[in-house]
Amino acid sequence: MASLDRREFLLGSTAALAAGSSAGAQTSKQLSRRPGYGAAATLWDLQADARLGEAISRYCTQVVPVLELKWPMLRPDPHTFAFERADAILDFARRNDLTMRGHTLAWYHDIPDWTTQIKETKAAERAFVDHISTVVAYYKDKLTSWDVVNEPIPDNPRKITDRRDCYWSSMLGERWIPLAFRTAAAADPFVKLAINEYDIESAKDSFIAKRAAYRNLIRDLLDQGVPLHAVGLQSHLHAELEIDKDGLAAFVAEMRSWGLEILVTELDVDDQKLPGDPAQRDAIVAKRVDDLLTAITASGPLNSILSWGISDRYSWINGTFKRPDKQPNRPLPLDGSFQPKPLMDVISKFAKAA
User: 131 CB contacts (<8 Å, ≥6 apart)?
Assistant: First the structure.
């Protein structure tokens, strides 16, 4: 881990680059910004490559930490809240006139080992509530929104009432999700609280089943009076799958009729199954995202579009989904050299229409 002094120096240098050294640079930045568009980043990558911070400052109005607000990094042990790394990204955001959102307070996948060693229900609940209330209170009035519960639906639900099994459900039962939202709302009554899920955008049977289960959970939470304000569509798209435009549009329209805002929270496109030609892949990727955003905006404007990274150079997809031809995936709006691709034009079009 880099020292805080080095961190501050590097992020300060990034901010200076983004701000520019002349009036012309300022004008260029203002013209290039995409209202309502943001990107995820890690502090490590921001420190390592000044081009990343410069790109986020140029194209974005918001940022979200990839790792720095998740349990393992914030809670190395039961007695420690390590806010320094997330604070550094918030500092970067403020230096560059960006907002920041929070990701994530409760997730089945990524929790530190010390939590799973808790075997008593009351102790598990105390740890759960203490974490959420402390973190949300610490960032009160500093963030625009929180992904409170992340990925609560299993990948292949057999019925609409299916929920993903996890440590928190095993210890707290079905009430763990309402408890997370109520705890967050008590700590900051004004921050926007979202639920977040992936693989609901296409017409594949598992996607349709997952969308139905997601709908059922959201309806159930609202019926219980849970303070839920927004529905997150992660939108980790599979380029070979067409968007279920009618089904997605109907889902979004129903969410809006329930008074909920729609957020695209983690947009990127896995192109591992597309042909090798980069230009052909870029065109298909842009079309998939255009179809996605067209469906989402059919019932109203979309105020927030976040991609999971901004440059292909720093995408999780290239480390996870390898193409058979060994070429890198091209999942994000900027290529590995930070040059814009057709996907950026699509994002710009919908962000500017918000």
Answer: 71, 74, 75, 105
Q: What is the distance between the terminal CA atoms of the chain, rounded to a whole angstrom?
A: 39
Tokens 């009432």, residue? 161
Helix (H) or strand (E) holding 351: helix 342-352
Per-residue tokens: 113: 């080992």
pLDDT at 14 over 60: no
The whole-angstrom separation of Cα 107 and Cα 96 is: 29
Q: Are 186 and 140 in contact (CB under 8 A)?
A: no
Angle at 181 between CA 177 and CA 185, to 5 degrees: 165
Note the pLDDT of residue 354.
58
Are 43 and 68 contacting, i.e. CB atoms less than 8 angstroms apart? Answer: yes
Q: What is the pLDDT of residues 218-268, one digit of tens each?
A: 999 999 999 999 999 999 999 999 999 999 999 999 999 999 999 999 999
Residue 39 pairs in a beta bridge with 63, 307
DSSP string covering 246-306: HHHHHHHHHHHHTT-EEEEEEEEEE-TTS-S-HHHHHHHHHHHHHHHHHHHGGGS----EE
**CA dist., res. 164 & res. 347, Å (int):** 31
Residue 117 CB partners (closer than 8 Å, separation 6+): none
Comparing CA positions, the residue from 165, 163, 151, 142 lying closest to residue 104 is 151
